[in-house]
Amino acid sequence: MRSTAPVRLQDTARARARLFLLLGAAALALAAAWLGNAGELVAKDSPGGGAGGPGGGGGGSERAAATTGKCVTCHKGIEEMHPWAKIGCADCHGGDPDATEKEKAHVAATKTIPNDERVLPANYDLPFLRFRNPTNLRVAAQTCGTCHKDQCEGFFKSLHCTTAGHLSDGFYENGLTKEKRSFFGVFPIADDRAVAPSAPGDPAAAAAAPTAPPTGALKSLAVLPAFLGASTNRDRIQTHFPDVPRKNCVRCHFWSQGLAVRGRLGMDGDYRAEGCAGCHVLYTDQGLSRSLDKTIKKFEPGHPLKHRMSSVVPTTTCVHCHYGDASIGLHFRGMAMLVPGQPAGPDVPGTTPMRLNGQFYMRDDKVTPPDVHYQKGMHCVDCHTGKDLMGDGGLYGAMEHGIEIECVSCHGTIKEETDLKTVRGRPLPHLTREDGKVVLRSKVDGKEHVVKQVKNVVDPKHPDYNARAAKAMTAAHDRLECYACHSGWNSNFFGFHFDRNESFNQLDLLTGERTPGRVNTLEKVFATFKQLYLGFNSEGMIAPYLTGFSTFCTVHDGKGRIIVDQRMPETAAGLSGMTMVHHQMHTVRPQARGCVECHRSSTTWGLGSPSFSLTRDFAFLGTSAGMTILAIDRKNPEKSIAAAIFPAPPALDVVLAVDPIQGHGQVAYLCCGTEGVVVADVSNPLFPRRLGKFKTVNARSGVLAGKHLLLADGTGGLKILDVSNPAKLALVRAVEMKDAHALSLSGLYAFVADGPGGLAIVDLADVAQARVVASASTSREKSELASDATHVATYFQYSRPTPDGKRTRAQNLALVADSRGGALIFDVTEPVRPLRLSTFLQNPNAERFVVKGLAVGSKFDLGSEGGKIPSEEHDYAWAVVEEKNKDDDPRGYLRIFRITDPRRPQGMGASMIQNELSAIAVLRTYNAPFLTYFALAVGPGTTEVIDVTKPGQPSRLAQVPGLAGAKGIAVESFCFDRTLDEDGKPLKDISHEGARYLTRDELVRILRVQLHTEESGPRK
Fold first, then answer.
1. What is the Cα Rg of the chain in Å?
2. Dihedral, CA atoms, 425, 426, 428, 434, nearest 10 degrees?
């Protein structure tokens, strides 16, 4: 979304402005060097090919003066706008070119033109709008369209014009429409050619077929529906969502010039025209004119660079729009939106030296290296065709239908070199074969780029051969988009949050009226730049997935009271609308990701991670009295209170099943030791209800995997129970163990803390035949003491780019607590070959030092304001430890370790608690605009709340009363990156028709591929 953050710039007084421009010359030069300021490209992309060509330099040509009447009497020095044909000023602008008085020569407005970003009606004072901007889409058919009819007709149907996908996806995700297609545009539009021929076999149909639009074309789009403020269902997200696009989204298209209206300060990087001029007339980032026309205000932002059209469009023009939402324009240049609260500025390393679009951005080669095409000097239009940008005559609702360029268009395939055409068969004139090489000549600056052919890269006899690439670029991968492996990074902001507050009014951009409800759509919860998610795109190819603009909702009424509280959307299909969508990240890097990031990570395919789970309303504690239900105060967790007690045998742990739409608890499985498993319905947490009981040997803890509960059952081993009917659990499989204490699930494997058996690894590909495939000792090295593994947590660590163009190593980690050996980290990337990497908690006197609980996950740490402490994404382990003093009095500690480098864990901070502890849960609570991390440490004598937002400075807040005797804990949460369960059942929807996540069989096949690469081998 476009940023509305106000920015204070130079004083508006004329003298101050002049001084600012003089003193700021060096700063502008820096900006040009940093981002390639549009002003520096004028000579190169002028229609004549340079300053000496038509329209280049000087005060306008003699031809222009001869065809524009008296206009140049006042507008002396004005540049020739359209040098390709003899067009006078009045031919485009209207007015009287022979008049000598301004009032007679110019077209007067008959209506007030508001100086804001609203979208004017399609028939609003057309003569004046034409005079002001002849390329305004309301009049373009009568101006530009007289010569460029096909281009105009196509552009009206293009996504650049309708923004149909952006406007419509949210309606599906929030359950307002039932079909996965676009229904809405900025203005209504129809396309009769979207109707397929009625009789494909007859000659008439065959003749019509070539002109029929491709797959995905629509018949029509309607205008966005109005917000129904008087609706009675005010507690539903569907009631409030329509206010979002009408007050924010509809300004991002060519019916409008967006936020940066003429004269509005502080919109650097946003200034552009509307209509055809939005691309074909260049603006500097500052929106200041350098025209020789003395009538143009040189100190008022919002003016084009010069009165001159460009036949080619540099990247600097594209990114005046493409910087929000999916962040294509940022990614391409090696930039990303800041994490909320992240320090940035000219003196902060890793961020941009100046504001654009009202904000600073990340710019760090360790995190956000630029796309290799940008790095080589290419521009957006060097890949994208005119049909991509201006439409091909079809009316589309998604980018995958409107784009004709793909990687293979230039690079070919493993079997064939490029045919120099788009995937729709249109020639690419700037792509040629010269001396046996494929050469791309830039449309913008004419620079030549040799384009490597995939066929040659995999050919051992060719100079371009790459052995590593040849192992991956095989027929087995022919359903992967090239950028599935070569997207070096992407920003994921899990949990976009829109807040609608009826205490304030805001402009409805389509009606032009201010109506109740200020909509804020810029709030973001979690941030990550290293995760990889994949699924099938609409073309049946595996492609990267990222969070688009799926939002959860909070609404305040006119008195500021919350009437909708962080509610998640639900589609008409009954799935979560907090979805992800396939995307071309525009972060292509030569160094591809490692094989294990696809073939050993279940997180990649949507089974979720521990890092992006948003805490909801309740926690469920196993206690000596059964289960206590804790109502969590998200703002002040230390004020949380016990809300209900469920009587049962003493519970060692609680396993919680949550609903996938909201993350609220549904069923609790109490692990009650020798009493077995007690099942409770907690859908109404204030009145829990007993459902049943299952007798086991020694139920200690468990984890849910789709319709199965995996139970650590002491000497009873690993029990696999079918929980399809929670009231009647059924045993599916019992895997023999020595003394199973706890377990963690990672893809097709369960990792069990098996007491004297150490770390046991169980293959779950076929749960009915589950078996131990490997084990590892967890005792202290060079010790004669036996293993006593009691806790385990797993975490997949993705690779990250490095400044030298390489990547760090991706690996699957298992963290294991041993009562004698401390806490250890194993590399379990190849589950049958676990390898001990390090020990991060160890005490010489094992009898006085015991790890009682583990949690793991990633976190983005905010640095210091001056940049001395960098803002970085790190991986962490949180552990609760019981230590005894010389008098055998137990004390509890929370200890935090950074495990970004799992071979060298770093101790960060610790918090002492007077009483012993038994378990830990990390709460991630969001109170706009802040995300806060709290540790809830429970024990027989206490339950403590510790703020761990700053890992190096944990702060003990308070003890929660009424929770004595706690042994285990489960917390309601919504996992943003969990899109399906272990059975392959979709949990989240996809707004694009044809796109889908993997099935269970596909998941098993991919995760069980035999790897013979260095990524999967043991570390030595």
1. 31
2. 50
CA dihedral 289, 292, 293, 294 (to 10 degrees): 90
Q: What number is the average pLDDT over the span 194-217?
A: 51
| Residue spans of beta strands (DSSP E) within 899-1008 | 906-913, 919-927, 930-938, 943-947, 955-959, 968-975
Please state, in angstroms and as integers, the Cα–Cα distance from residue 737 to each residue in 712, 718, 734, 826, following that order.
Answer: 9, 7, 9, 20
For the stretch 948-973, pLDDT in tens is: 999 999 999 998 887 778 999 999 99
d(Cα 449, Cα 441) in Å, to the nearest integer?
6
939 vs 963: CA distance, rounded Å: 9
SS3 readout for 204-262: HHHHHHHHCCCCCCCCEEEECCCCCCCCCCCCCHHHHCCHHHHHCHHHCCCCCCCCCCC
Query: Which amino acid is residue 629, in one-letter code?
Result: I
Q: Is the dihedral of CA 135, 319, 407, 41 positive or negative?
A: positive
722 DSSP assignment: E
Question: Which residues 6+ apart lie within 8 Å of 804 measured at CB?
Answer: none
pLDDT of 813-822, one tens digit each? 999 999 888 8
Give the strands of the sheet with 955-959, arranged side by side: 919-927, 930-938, 943-947, 955-959
| DSSP line for 372-403 | HHHHTT--HHHHS-HHHHH--S---SSHHHH-
Cis amide prior to 47 (ω within 30 degrees): no
Give the span between the Cα atoms of 16 and 21, in whole angstroms: 9
**Average pLDDT, stretch 1007-1014?**
81
Cα atoms in the 13 Å half-sphere on the side-chain side of 439: 10
Beta bridge partners of 350: none
pLDDT digits (tens, 9 = 90+) for 340-364: 999 999 999 999 999 999 999 999 9
A 10 A CB-CB count for 461 gives 6
